[in-house]
């Protein structure tokens, strides 16, 4: 029986020192308690982002763990346990073993996962490509609808918002339900991988899908909540059975007595062909936008965006924007200035959402990521207590 997240993912333990720092971090006011009082999290308002957890100076905020569920599946001879690993995990995992931030632990991470007993070890990059293709294609359809191209009348409205951050999606659902038609309908890479793990993978390997147990390693605590959303069961099975964070994987490796430094560099198991590598920029804010925009540009213009500089979409400012002139092939090369915005910190999205709802937004495409700088600084990443 798997852990069920009935009361959210993040909890303040009874060891709270009542310093009140976390209330200034929370984007939704989900944490209650005054200075000097035990603090509590209201699960209904919480986005499960884990930013309070990584910023609590006393380390007394905890996430719900699914590690025991995974260990039970690994020890069950009737289960075939597959694992996916997100791009932001490999550049942070090494920190838990004394490496410098940014050390690429990809090869050792795959070796460690095999030592832990996972039957197949996959990279989420391929399904990140699928998310980019879906979001890019959807944007193209919405742009065609907006310029009056026949056959695209059923497409959604502009601007399109990205949909791969579960904390942002919950924020939109809880606070701005009228904005939901503007969100891309594409599943996140985690959920796309999960769907494939319960359909394509068992078919390819000749295994009963009921035996597949699908795990993901994420930089993100909100991905635990996402994995249990009731809509992600289209195959008849839950797409992702359990999620662990970068921190929890490091702890599993330590608990198993694996010497991380001595591990060989190994590769991920082959999935369904090569990925483009576009997903490696997924972990930083602006990455999803840039990858989807390159796809949309190629289709709309018939040309590559190769030499066009869209660097303004990267960086750490909480709201950034850029305009890309796209020659629309279907309109005889007529140029359309496509305006994009990148937001990190869900609270910072509120003015842009209000502009959209009031009909005064100038944008075509808006990326929203909850965590500062994107998933690389997600709530599941190693905690640097020395910075507090
Ligand atoms: S930051 Fe940590 S110790 Fe301080 S009030 Fe919040 S939970 Fe308690
Ligand atoms: S997990 Fe995020 S939304 Fe929930 S209480 Fe902590 S900071 Fe607030
Ligand atoms: S920005 Fe990334 S790590 Fe943070 S909540 Fe969203 S998906 Fe998770």
Characterise this structure.
It is globular and about 65 Å long. The relative contact order is 0.17. Strand 2 and strand 3 form a beta hairpin. The chain has 13 helices and 12 strands. The longest helix is centred in the middle third of the chain and has 22 residues, at 125-146. The protein folds into 3 domains: 10-63, 2-Layer Sandwich (Alpha-Beta Plaits), CATH 3.30.70; 67-127 and 188-276, Rossmann fold, CATH 3.40.50; 132-186 and 278-376, Fe-only Hydrogenase (Larger Subunit), Chain L, domain 3 (3-Layer(aba) Sandwich), CATH 3.40.950. Helix 6 packs across helix 8 and helix 6 packs across helix 12 (287-301). The chain has helices at 21-25, 51-55, 67-74, 87-90, 106-116, 125-146, 166-175, 189-197, 200-205, 222-227, 246-255, 287-301, 346-357; strands at residues 10-12, 31-32, 40-41, 61-63, 80-85, 120-123, 160-161, 212-218, 242-245, 319-328, 334-344, 365-369. A 4-stranded parallel beta sheet has the order 6-5-8-9, sandwiched between helices. A 4-stranded mixed beta sheet has the order 7-12-11-10, sandwiched between helices. It has a two-stranded antiparallel ribbon with strand order 1-4. The chain is α/β, with parallel strands linked by helices and 388 residues long. The protein is 32% helix and 15% strand. Bound molecules: iron/sulfur cluster (3 copies). The site of one iron/sulfur cluster has 13 residues, from helix 1.
């Amino acid at each position: 029986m798997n852990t069920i997240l009935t009361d959210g993912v993040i909890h303040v333990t009874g060891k709270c020192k009542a310093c009140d720092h976390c209330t200034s971090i929370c984007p939704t006011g989900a944490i209650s308690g005054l200075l000097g009082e035990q603090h509590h999290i209201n699960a209904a308002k919480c986005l499960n982002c884990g930013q309070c957890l990584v910023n609590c100076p006393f380390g007394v905020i905890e996430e719900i763990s699914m590690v025991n569920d995974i260990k039970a599946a690994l020890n069950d001879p009737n289960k075939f346990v597959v694992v996916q690993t997100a791009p932001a995990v490999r550049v942070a995992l090494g920190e838990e073993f004394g490496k410098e931030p940014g050390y690429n632990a990809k090869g050792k991470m795959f070796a460690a996962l095999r030592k832990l007993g996972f039957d197949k070890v996959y990279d989420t990059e391929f399904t990140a490509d699928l998310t980019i293709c879906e979001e890019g294609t959807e944007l193209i359809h919405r742009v065609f609808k907006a310029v009056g191209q026949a056959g695209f009348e059923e497409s959604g409205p502009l601007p399109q918002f990205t949909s791969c951050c579960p904390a942002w999606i919950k924020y939109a659902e809880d606070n701005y339900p009228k904005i939901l038609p503007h969100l891309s309908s594409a599943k996140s890479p985690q959920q796309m991988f999960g769907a494939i793990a319960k359909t394509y993978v068992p078919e390819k390997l000749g295994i009963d899908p009921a035996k597949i147990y699908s795990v993901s390693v994420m930089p993100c605590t909100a991905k635990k909540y996402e994995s249990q959303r009731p809509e992600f069961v289209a195959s008849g099975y839950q797409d992702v059975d359990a999620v662990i964070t970068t921190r929890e994987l490091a702890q599993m490796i330590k608990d198993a007595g694996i010497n991380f430094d001595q591990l060989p560099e190994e590769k991920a198991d082959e999935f369904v062909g090569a990925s483009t590598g576009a997903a490696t920029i997924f972990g930083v804010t602006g990455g999803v936008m840039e990858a989807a925009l390159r796809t949309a540009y190629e289709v709309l213009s018939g040309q590559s965006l190769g030499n066009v500089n869209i660097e303004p979409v990267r960086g750490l400012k909480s709201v950034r924007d850029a305009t890309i002139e796209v020659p629309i092939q279907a309109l005889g090369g007529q140029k359309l200035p496509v305006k994009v915005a990148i937001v990190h910190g869900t609270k910072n999205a509120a003015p842009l959402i209000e502009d959209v709802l009031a009909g005064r937004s100038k944008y075509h495409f808006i990326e929203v990521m909850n965590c500062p700088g994107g998933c690389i600084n997600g709530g599941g990443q190693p905690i640097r207590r020395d910075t507090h």
